[in-house]
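Sample intake sheet
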Amino acid sequence: MKSKVYLLSFIGLILAVSLFAGPPNWTVIGGTSGSMTVIARVDFFGESFTDELDNILGAFGSGGESDCRSLGAYYPTPLDFWYMTVVGDTYGETISFKIYDTPTDTIYDCYETVSFESGSMVGSFSDPFLLHIPSGTIEGIVTLSGGSGNVQNVEVSAGIKTVNPDITGYYSIKVVTDTFDVTASLVNYHDSTLTNVVVVDSAIVTANFTLTPIQPGTIQGTINLVGGSGNVQNVEVTAGDSTTHPNASGEYEIGLMPGIYNVIAHLTGYIDSTVIDVQVLENQATNVNIDLYPESTPGTIEGNVSLIDTKGNVQDVEITAGDSTVHPNAIGDYVITIQPGIYDVTACLIGYTTETVEGVIVYEGLATTGIDFILEKVPSPPNWRRITGTQYSMVVMASVTLNGQPFVDDGNNKIGAFGPEGVGDCRCETGIYYPQPSDFWYMTIVGNANGQPIEFMLFDDSTNCVYECIETVIFSDNATVDTVLTGSEPVDPGKIKGTVTLNGGTGNPEDVQIIAGPAIVNPLPDGQYTINLMVGTYDVYASLGGYETDSLTSLVVNEGQILENNDLTLNSYVIENVLIWIDGNDVHLSWSGPEGVIYHIYHSTSPYTGFGLPFYSTTDTTCIDYGAADSTKYFYYITAE
């Protein structure tokens, strides 16, 4: 028996269909041999119907709206008529009229008709033929029987028409001839409806209403403090927009209009409690008793942080557990006060390794000690990027000192030159060091304008810091300058911040890898990320398996600057047009998807479990599951990364 093969669809296709109301698509028929003229004025609920807001008047034969014979052209006041050339072939056939009213988005039938007679005219410029929409009036008095409502806020509705009464309660609604349910409603009053109100042409129908107020109900109960030293009379009990406090016995009562409410009890030092979907009925009490429990007594996480390279400042280290972040003191000791629970504790400092201790248990009122960290320095030279498109250059040969010592090419030390625009205006990304006996840095500096000041910065690998130099030179094409440069104050690093969004797929924002220069970080669960960087120009890349990579280019980080809103969006790979067929004992699959990715193909005998490792991986968009076409039922699953 051949196997049954199923394909699991993990990329959904959503088709959205929206219906929009609007003017009808009336189109005059063609191929007729005769025509007549109709000059008409249209009475629409006692007022002249004009072409304001793209209103339409149409003439129709026996075929209805698909048998349109004319679309009128309106001539405004003082003429105030519609001019229509009505086409047709059959003498004596009945021509009816319809209007489309834009404000109500409704088609109405006119009462009058004419007989088609080619060459004739119905109505004239001075005495237009009168068309009218069959209509009548519903009127009456609305009375409020008690309560504090305002009768002018009552809404009286019949069909699509809604009006408000005047101060005496009188209302009047002009409606087409029909049978209506007429309703009067006001907030906090019972609705009143008269059914089967028949309106004939030109009639006035009376419909009076008396509205009675809705009586409130109550939520009542007792608040019980289970432990702790709180005062029950300070508890805030809230439902809707109403808040009250219990008495000394914990009893409370809130008057509310009928409806569904969430009841919330809050007291500082206690855990909030919410009872959802509490129904309040008219003139009835609903009992809701609530117990409040004290918040747990916090515990502490304690330890010490030490830096292998003593040139760093241990007080700048960030120690994080949950939502709490602290800095150690001068000797590296730290304390985090936090609610009981299990935490991953992380220590980080720019330019040093980030270390994490997982699964640290904090007990109520107790100290968890010995959570120590040793951070090693990680070289993180700045990313200086020389500008392009320049036409001039000069040479600077400099003897450089930092902190009174010669600054040499030891490891990752760098020297850069910059124009008036700062680090985004790099004129030489790194000089070439010539050791003793020469002991100078050789730099080729580019530019487009003579006379500009050129500043210098040093990156010292041993301190993992950038320093500004005191001296400057003036740019001059083809010049060679011998100079002395002295490093002075360190330059504060900057930050790049933003949010990563995953579009589709089942990925986790915390697993996204974000790279900028030497820095690699992962976002928080909500996708927000922060990268601490030396001054320089950086490209930022975000990547995650199963998603297209996104990037931002040439972000300039200046001293102490925070670059906000550098958001990245990763779109999941789309696999579509999947085909599956059996050839002999083999199952063949093909699909379409992005190029340059690796596809993993899984199969299982269950639609939801048992897929395990892929049985095949490929960069192609085809796969053969050899020998799978036996009596086994298989389900297939395809991913891309």
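Comment: Confidence is low (pLDDT under 50) at residues 1-20. The domain at 34-132 is CATH 2.60.40 (Immunoglobulin-like).
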